[in-house]
Amino acid sequence: MIKVSNLTKEFMQGQEATQVLKGVDFTIKEGEFVAIMGPSGSGKSTLLQLLGGLDVPTAGEIEIDGKPLHQMKEKERTIFRRQKLGFVFQNYQLLPTLTVEENVAFPLHADGKWTSEHSQAVNDLIDSVGLKGLNRKRVNLLSGGQQQRVAIARALVHNPTVLLADEPTGNLDRAKAEEILALLSTFHRKDKQTVVMVTHDIFAAGFADRIILFRDGVIDQVISREDRDYAKYLANFLA
């Protein structure tokens, strides 16, 4: 589903180039749940922006569902993002004056795909993320955990090929975080949804099939959740 080859990203600081990603290679299979972890400044958030087409690499290749994202012009990336990718952000990024239903339906309106036939599908999706009966409530009146559920429903409403999550539990307490992670895991298992999640939380990473550990712009280690020593590896890596 995702193939990254020799991916490099540099940022200019004055006259000096800072290399954030240094020739990264990996693949993610269709239906896989992958967590990307690493210390602050390791390049994990930059990687997610590149996978989402929000930025372009300095060098290297990104293919998603067989499409060369690295070769697309800005307009092409925008269309690809709207049609193929779903985003869940740490700060929810909802429209606060709109209702739950209006926020969830927004991607369909933005892409010109909305018809009255979508109304039931939107309501069913709202029910499936545990917000039944809150369709007409403004999102700024919801708790943080409820707002993140709205964000997940919005990200899934157009049946994306890949769901990208950037610290989706960063603003939540442990109990609410576990609810959100369980919800992502349910969609991953039930709908074979491909999920790529950036997180600094070992607990959150434990919901993934694989964990890609970044350090200083390169992949330090890849750990499978089935590996009985994965907790030890993580502790050593983050020490």
Automatic annotation (TrEMBL):
<dbReference type="InterPro" id="IPR015854">
    <property type="entry name" value="ABC_transpr_LolD-like"/>
</dbReference>
<dbReference type="InterPro" id="IPR017911">
    <property type="entry name" value="MacB-like_ATP-bd"/>
</dbReference>
<dbReference type="GO" id="GO:0022857">
    <property type="term" value="F:transmembrane transporter activity"/>
</dbReference>
<feature type="domain" description="ABC transporter">
    <location>
        <begin position="2"/>
        <end position="238"/>
    </location>
</feature>
<dbReference type="Pfam" id="PF00005">
    <property type="entry name" value="ABC_tran"/>
</dbReference>
<dbReference type="GO" id="GO:0005524">
    <property type="term" value="F:ATP binding"/>
</dbReference>
<dbReference type="InterPro" id="IPR027417">
    <property type="entry name" value="P-loop_NTPase"/>
</dbReference>
<dbReference type="GO" id="GO:0098796">
    <property type="term" value="C:membrane protein complex"/>
</dbReference>
<protein>
    <submittedName>
        <fullName>Antimicrobial peptide ABC transporter ATP-binding protein</fullName>
    </submittedName>
</protein>
<keyword id="KW-0067">ATP-binding</keyword>
<dbReference type="InterPro" id="IPR003439">
    <property type="entry name" value="ABC_transporter-like_ATP-bd"/>
</dbReference>
<comment type="similarity">
    <text>Belongs to the ABC transporter superfamily.</text>
</comment>
<dbReference type="InterPro" id="IPR003593">
    <property type="entry name" value="AAA+_ATPase"/>
</dbReference>
<dbReference type="GO" id="GO:0005886">
    <property type="term" value="C:plasma membrane"/>
</dbReference>
<keyword id="KW-0547">Nucleotide-binding</keyword>
<keyword id="KW-0813">Transport</keyword>
<dbReference type="GO" id="GO:0016887">
    <property type="term" value="F:ATP hydrolysis activity"/>
</dbReference>
<dbReference type="InterPro" id="IPR017871">
    <property type="entry name" value="ABC_transporter-like_CS"/>
</dbReference>
